[in-house]
Amino acid sequence: MAITTRTYAIIAATAVVAGLGVMWLATNSQQAQPESTDVFAQCRQGVVSGAGAIGGAFELVSETGATVTEKDVITKPSLLYFGYTYCPDVCPLDSTRNAEAVYLLDDRGYDVTPVFISVDSARDTPELLAEFTDIMHPRMIGLSGSEEQIKAASKAYRTYFKVQDPSDPYTLIDHSTQTYLVFPDTGFVEFFNRDVTPEDMADRVACFVDAWKTTQPGGAQ
Q1: Which of 2, 123, 173, 206 is least surrounded by CB atoms within 10 angstroms?
Q2: pLDDT for 29-44, tens place per residue?
Q3: Domain range for residue 168?
Q4: Which pTM does this prediction carry?
Q5: Which residues make up the binding site for Cu cation (predicted)?
Protein backbone atom coordinates (compact mmCIF):
# COMPACT_ATOMS: atom_id res chain seq x y z
CA MET A 1 0.00 0.00 0.00
CA ALA A 2 1.38 3.39 -0.95
CA ILE A 3 2.14 5.81 1.84
CA THR A 4 0.63 9.21 1.10
CA THR A 5 2.06 12.57 2.06
CA ARG A 6 -0.67 12.84 4.67
CA THR A 7 0.41 9.52 6.21
CA TYR A 8 4.01 10.71 6.39
CA ALA A 9 2.83 13.84 8.18
CA ILE A 10 0.84 11.80 10.71
CA ILE A 11 3.82 9.51 11.38
CA ALA A 12 6.14 12.50 11.81
CA ALA A 13 3.72 14.25 14.15
CA THR A 14 3.31 11.07 16.18
CA ALA A 15 7.09 10.76 16.51
CA VAL A 16 7.38 14.35 17.69
CA VAL A 17 4.64 13.85 20.27
CA ALA A 18 6.26 10.62 21.43
CA GLY A 19 9.61 12.36 21.70
CA LEU A 20 8.09 15.17 23.73
CA GLY A 21 6.46 12.57 25.96
CA VAL A 22 9.81 10.88 26.59
CA MET A 23 11.40 14.23 27.36
CA TRP A 24 8.55 15.07 29.75
CA LEU A 25 8.88 11.73 31.52
CA ALA A 26 12.66 12.10 31.78
CA THR A 27 12.41 15.66 33.10
CA ASN A 28 9.72 14.84 35.63
CA SER A 29 11.51 11.65 36.60
CA GLN A 30 14.60 13.69 37.42
CA GLN A 31 12.52 16.21 39.31
CA ALA A 32 10.85 13.41 41.23
CA GLN A 33 14.18 12.04 42.44
CA PRO A 34 14.50 12.77 46.16
CA GLU A 35 17.07 15.39 47.03
CA SER A 36 19.99 14.46 49.25
CA THR A 37 18.97 14.06 52.87
CA ASP A 38 22.46 14.99 54.02
CA VAL A 39 21.94 18.34 55.75
CA PHE A 40 25.72 18.76 55.86
CA ALA A 41 26.29 18.29 52.12
CA GLN A 42 27.17 21.96 51.54
CA CYS A 43 29.81 21.81 54.28
CA ARG A 44 31.67 18.73 53.14
CA GLN A 45 34.85 18.95 51.08
CA GLY A 46 34.80 15.28 50.13
CA VAL A 47 33.13 11.96 50.75
CA VAL A 48 34.27 10.17 53.90
CA SER A 49 34.48 6.47 53.09
CA GLY A 50 32.72 4.41 55.75
CA ALA A 51 31.56 7.51 57.64
CA GLY A 52 28.60 5.65 59.07
CA ALA A 53 30.95 3.28 60.88
CA ILE A 54 32.93 6.06 62.61
CA GLY A 55 32.09 6.97 66.19
CA GLY A 56 29.86 5.42 68.79
CA ALA A 57 29.63 4.64 72.46
CA PHE A 58 32.57 4.82 74.83
CA GLU A 59 33.27 4.77 78.56
CA LEU A 60 36.32 6.66 79.79
CA VAL A 61 37.66 8.46 82.85
CA SER A 62 37.43 12.24 82.92
CA GLU A 63 40.18 14.58 84.12
CA THR A 64 37.98 15.00 87.21
CA GLY A 65 38.35 11.29 87.98
CA ALA A 66 34.72 10.49 87.13
CA THR A 67 33.76 7.68 84.79
CA VAL A 68 31.86 9.15 81.84
CA THR A 69 30.24 8.02 78.61
CA GLU A 70 29.89 9.74 75.26
CA LYS A 71 26.49 11.07 76.38
CA ASP A 72 28.13 12.86 79.30
CA VAL A 73 30.88 14.35 77.14
CA ILE A 74 29.29 15.14 73.79
CA THR A 75 26.52 17.45 74.93
CA LYS A 76 27.39 20.14 72.35
CA PRO A 77 29.18 20.21 69.01
CA SER A 78 32.58 18.75 69.88
CA LEU A 79 36.05 18.32 68.39
CA LEU A 80 37.64 15.01 69.45
CA TYR A 81 41.35 14.34 69.23
CA PHE A 82 43.26 11.19 70.26
CA GLY A 83 46.79 11.79 71.57
CA TYR A 84 48.84 11.81 74.77
CA THR A 85 50.36 14.50 76.98
CA TYR A 86 53.94 13.14 76.78
CA CYS A 87 53.86 13.57 73.00
CA PRO A 88 56.87 15.76 72.14
CA ASP A 89 55.47 17.68 69.17
CA VAL A 90 52.42 16.52 67.21
CA CYS A 91 49.83 16.44 70.00
CA PRO A 92 50.65 19.87 71.47
CA LEU A 93 50.59 21.43 68.00
CA ASP A 94 47.33 19.75 66.98
CA SER A 95 45.68 20.52 70.30
CA THR A 96 46.78 24.14 70.07
CA ARG A 97 45.32 24.35 66.55
CA ASN A 98 42.03 22.89 67.79
CA ALA A 99 41.97 25.33 70.71
CA GLU A 100 42.66 28.28 68.42
CA ALA A 101 39.80 27.21 66.15
CA VAL A 102 37.47 27.01 69.15
CA TYR A 103 38.56 30.49 70.29
CA LEU A 104 37.72 31.80 66.81
CA LEU A 105 34.34 30.09 67.03
CA ASP A 106 33.82 31.56 70.50
CA ASP A 107 34.26 35.03 68.98
CA ARG A 108 31.55 34.23 66.44
CA GLY A 109 29.12 32.95 69.04
CA TYR A 110 29.56 29.21 68.41
CA ASP A 111 29.80 27.01 71.49
CA VAL A 112 32.06 24.08 70.56
CA THR A 113 33.76 21.75 73.04
CA PRO A 114 37.33 20.57 72.41
CA VAL A 115 37.98 17.05 73.73
CA PHE A 116 41.39 15.41 74.22
CA ILE A 117 41.31 11.61 74.54
CA SER A 118 44.58 10.19 75.80
CA VAL A 119 45.78 6.85 74.42
CA ASP A 120 48.38 6.66 77.21
CA SER A 121 46.72 4.66 79.98
CA ALA A 122 50.01 4.16 81.85
CA ARG A 123 51.04 7.80 82.31
CA ASP A 124 48.14 10.16 81.67
CA THR A 125 46.48 10.51 85.04
CA PRO A 126 43.43 12.74 85.50
CA GLU A 127 45.67 15.34 87.17
CA LEU A 128 48.08 15.47 84.21
CA LEU A 129 45.23 15.67 81.75
CA ALA A 130 43.62 18.54 83.65
CA GLU A 131 46.90 20.45 83.61
CA PHE A 132 47.35 19.83 79.87
CA THR A 133 43.81 20.78 78.85
CA ASP A 134 43.70 23.87 81.07
CA ILE A 135 46.70 25.22 79.19
CA MET A 136 45.01 24.65 75.84
CA HIS A 137 41.48 25.92 76.43
CA PRO A 138 39.37 26.37 79.58
CA ARG A 139 36.59 24.20 78.11
CA MET A 140 38.80 21.42 76.79
CA ILE A 141 37.86 18.08 78.35
CA GLY A 142 40.57 15.51 79.03
CA LEU A 143 39.70 11.81 78.97
CA SER A 144 41.68 8.66 79.55
CA GLY A 145 40.99 5.31 81.19
CA SER A 146 42.13 1.72 81.31
CA GLU A 147 43.89 0.13 78.37
CA GLU A 148 40.66 -1.69 77.48
CA GLN A 149 38.53 1.47 77.67
CA ILE A 150 40.94 3.42 75.47
CA LYS A 151 41.15 0.62 72.92
CA ALA A 152 37.35 0.48 72.72
CA ALA A 153 37.06 4.25 72.16
CA SER A 154 39.86 4.17 69.59
CA LYS A 155 38.19 1.30 67.76
CA ALA A 156 34.87 3.16 67.70
CA TYR A 157 36.50 6.10 65.92
CA ARG A 158 38.70 3.93 63.70
CA THR A 159 41.87 5.50 65.07
CA TYR A 160 45.27 3.87 65.41
CA PHE A 161 47.81 3.89 68.23
CA LYS A 162 50.74 1.70 69.24
CA VAL A 163 53.02 2.02 72.26
CA GLN A 164 56.57 1.62 70.99
CA ASP A 165 58.03 0.09 74.17
CA PRO A 166 55.64 -0.52 77.09
CA SER A 167 58.60 -1.21 79.42
CA ASP A 168 60.14 2.22 78.76
CA PRO A 169 58.72 4.98 81.00
CA TYR A 170 59.68 7.53 78.33
CA THR A 171 58.28 5.58 75.40
CA LEU A 172 56.68 7.29 72.43
CA ILE A 173 53.30 6.28 71.06
CA ASP A 174 52.50 6.14 67.37
CA HIS A 175 48.96 7.35 66.70
CA SER A 176 46.64 8.78 64.09
CA THR A 177 46.18 12.54 64.13
CA GLN A 178 42.75 13.37 62.73
CA THR A 179 40.34 15.56 64.67
CA TYR A 180 36.69 14.46 64.63
CA LEU A 181 33.66 16.74 64.62
CA VAL A 182 30.74 15.12 66.43
CA PHE A 183 27.28 16.25 67.53
CA PRO A 184 24.95 15.01 70.27
CA ASP A 185 22.74 12.20 68.95
CA THR A 186 23.92 12.82 65.36
CA GLY A 187 27.43 11.56 66.09
CA PHE A 188 30.39 11.86 63.71
CA VAL A 189 30.02 14.20 60.72
CA GLU A 190 33.52 15.19 59.59
CA PHE A 191 37.24 14.89 60.29
CA PHE A 192 40.08 17.36 59.89
CA ASN A 193 43.67 16.53 58.99
CA ARG A 194 46.74 18.17 60.48
CA ASP A 195 47.22 20.58 57.57
CA VAL A 196 43.91 22.36 58.22
CA THR A 197 44.49 25.83 59.65
CA PRO A 198 42.59 27.18 62.69
CA GLU A 199 40.78 29.63 60.43
CA ASP A 200 39.73 26.98 57.93
CA MET A 201 38.65 24.65 60.71
CA ALA A 202 36.58 27.38 62.32
CA ASP A 203 34.88 28.22 59.00
CA ARG A 204 34.04 24.61 58.26
CA VAL A 205 32.87 23.82 61.79
CA ALA A 206 30.63 26.89 61.74
CA CYS A 207 29.02 25.60 58.53
CA PHE A 208 28.35 22.21 60.12
CA VAL A 209 26.97 23.77 63.30
CA ASP A 210 24.61 26.02 61.34
CA ALA A 211 23.34 23.01 59.39
CA TRP A 212 23.01 20.93 62.56
CA LYS A 213 20.94 23.64 64.26
CA THR A 214 18.31 23.36 61.53
CA THR A 215 17.69 19.76 62.64
CA GLN A 216 17.10 20.74 66.25
CA PRO A 217 13.71 21.62 67.79
CA GLY A 218 12.99 25.22 66.89
CA GLY A 219 15.31 25.20 63.87
CA ALA A 220 18.33 27.46 63.42
CA GLN A 221 19.13 29.76 66.30
Answers
A1: 2
A2: 444 444 558 899 999 8
A3: 53-210
A4: 0.80
A5: 87, 91, 175
